[in-house]
Amino acid sequence: MSFVYVAVGLMLLLIAGDLLVRGAVSLGLRAGIPAVIVGLTIVAFGTSAPELFVTIESVMEGVPGLAVGNVIGSNIANVLLVLGLPALLAPMGDHSNETRRNYIIMMFVTMVAVALCLAGPLTWWQGGLLLTMLAMFLFDTYRSAMASRARGEDVEVPDELEDADPQMPPWKIASLIGIGIIGLPVGAGFAIEGARDIALSYGLSDEAVGLTIIALGTSLPELATTVMAAVRGRADVAIGNVIGSNLFNLLAILGVAASLGEITLPAEFLNLNLWVMVAASAALAPFIFMRRNVGRIAGGVFVAAYVVYIALVLQPTPTPI
Q: Are 120 and 260 within 8 A, CB to CB?
């Protein structure tokens, strides 16, 4: 029954998150907000709504380790699985200067997050620091996008904007946003309740469940989108999307989690999972800076590494004597 709760919760999270993004994007465009701003704000926050609500619900329910596990696990899954599986179907690469720049920022933010976790319990001031860095990153990205537009260069439009309807009736916009706002906390509640029962039943820590089941579940949209893009031969944007998602997870989701309550991480989390996240992120460096595509061999190595990692994380926690 616990797995059913998690499945239902994740399904509600994904559906509600999608409806919220569709409604909010249409509202933004209908209100005359430029597409670049809609992409940087509404789309960025909306597509991370499942992770955000899981984080809020986890902290409020007294299982903050599950929230942090979701963030770290999602970042690991994004690189090793979301990029690894599609690479088995078709090579992918993103050699733009913007992607290299964002990758450098992502690695810096990753090391800042690791340093904060190692320094002791995460509290409100660490959360405030991460959220401040998020605001600085969004402003800098917006300034860069507007400068590119002024030079007559193409500004990448998020996929969520391609099918948006600026003429959507107000009642439909309100319905989509309303269902999304209601469905997200309900789905998060189901997912957290099921995850806690699984942790108790199988001798797993809350962090382990967040790193695996919850993280993988909330990463499914990115995985499905990237696989379909690879099938259609349009997977070149996948690396940039993963970098952006990882940045947002660390700055926004982890920032919110730390701001809501003190989070103390167990030793095994600090000794393994943080460094796997760093290693997975660093593994992209040759493809970013040497302008190489992520091919089938690299994709196979990524997926195999993820399987080994999951096996290590899912080892039951020893029962104290």
A: no
Decide which of 276 and 184 is more confident: 276
- If you average pLDDT over residues 219-240, what whole number do you get? 72
Tokens, residue 169: 């009736």
Residue whose structure tokens are 């990153």 = 137
Q: Residue 319: inside a domain, yes or no?
A: no
* 224 three-class SS: helix
**Tally of domains within the chain:** 1
Does residue 97 come out as left (phi exceeding 0), alpha (psi in the -120 to 50 range) or beta?
alpha
Other Cβ atoms less than 10 A from the Cβ of 278: the count is: 17
Most confident of 57-71, 155-169, 215-229: 57-71
CATH of residue 190's domain is 1.20.1420.30
The pTM is what?
0.84
Residue 321 belongs to a domain: no
